[in-house]
Design a protein that fits this description.
The complex is a heterodimer.
Chain A: H1 2-17, H2 19-43, H3 49-66, H4 70-128
Chain B: H1 2-19, H2 32-40, H3 45-62, H4 69-91, H5 96-149, H6 160-180, E1 187-192, E2 195-201, H7 217-228, E3 233-240, H8 247-267, E4 275-279, H9 292-298, E5 300-307
Classes of the chains: A mainly alpha, B alpha+beta.
Amino acid sequence: MQKLAVVALTIAVCLLSSCGSGYKLLAQERASAASALKASCENEKVQEIEVTIADSLYEVAVELRAKGKHREAFSRLDFAVILYQLALAKSTLEETIEENQELETALKVAQSKLATYEQILQELKADAKP
Amino acid sequence: MKNAGVLGIVLCFSAALAASVWVYPWDAREQDAVRTQLAARVADPLGKLKVMQTRLTEAYGRLGDNVDPQDVALYHEALSRIEAAREACRDEEDTPQAHEEFSKAWYASRGAFVQFRTVEERARGRGLRVDIDAVLRRIDAAKDSINKLDPTKLTGMHTPEYDAQAEAQAMREAVQARFKSLENEQITVERDKRGTVISVSDMLFEVGKSALTGKLKPNLARVADILAVNPNAHITIEGHTDNRGDKSRNQRLSEQRAANVKQFLITQGVDSTRIIARGYGFKRPIAPNDTEEGRRKNRRVELVIGVAEAAGK
């Protein structure tokens, strides 16, 4: 336990004494998240405007990280993550709405057929009456 | 002791973050759209954040049992973004940090809203599937009963042609219902022998000009959305004027207006081969031209939507 506390304090002191390295870690984590989401958007061919904006932010962040400006990079990557998430969510919603529209059409088709069969059945029953 | 260690990490980490000063100089390559959003969203940010939080919580509450861990995580992330933005805006609203935090909260909340809407739509989809299954079972039962009474009666009713006809009819009804939802004071939706007719008042244009104003563009964009999910639908755009002024000028104006509506729909993703644009000048009035009310009705653009026939046929 004592070891854990020492490690924790050491990490905290490192973070406090060097804010830059704190942002380096944060930027690294956000870069991983942004990169994964960016790949998802590309794989799923998401074409929302948010992807364009997030791509720009991501591109700038990569350059900023290379220059050691981790705080600025983190800021942009964090924003890019939010935008990629929004773009993917919008794309999924659109797909779901389209699926539901197809289901609605299928339901109407089925109801239309049912009405036809029930009408035939009523006519047959009426004819069958003596 | 373990807790103290973890607490130490969290506290010191937070302190390190709080001690830093955000600098947010936008790179020239970063989109104008983002800057516009930032500028537009900061009027009364605390009030907006409060509304944002209330709506988010309400939307989350509506999900009931349909939530999964991903939805819960998004909800809490959006809430923490809102809280961060509130903190940033509390002392000074017009700082880069406040702008940035507000913007992040806004987009994160929007993401959560969209996700919650998806959850609701999925639940609706499950309901539709249940309804379809129920109808299909009733169809089977009806068929069985028919076959018992007259085994020859259903001959010819299982053909692809029969199914295609039923599907086309259902598609027409579905499209009509969706377009009907567009109706307001400036837009009427009727059905006649040409198909579904969306009549848009001349508020869509500047007076005496063919350029589209912004007033009804969202409605036209909605038309494009509906067309996008109905690939069998095609559209004929008809421009009409009242009888004031020169005949050839009215004819030209009606053609240009129809062409501009067509162009707008193309920019919204509708395939140009599905659209025909025509101008009729004042040749096809729908009301007498001797009153202002009648002339107002005659100045219009009609979007005639048909289903299951290719444009241009």
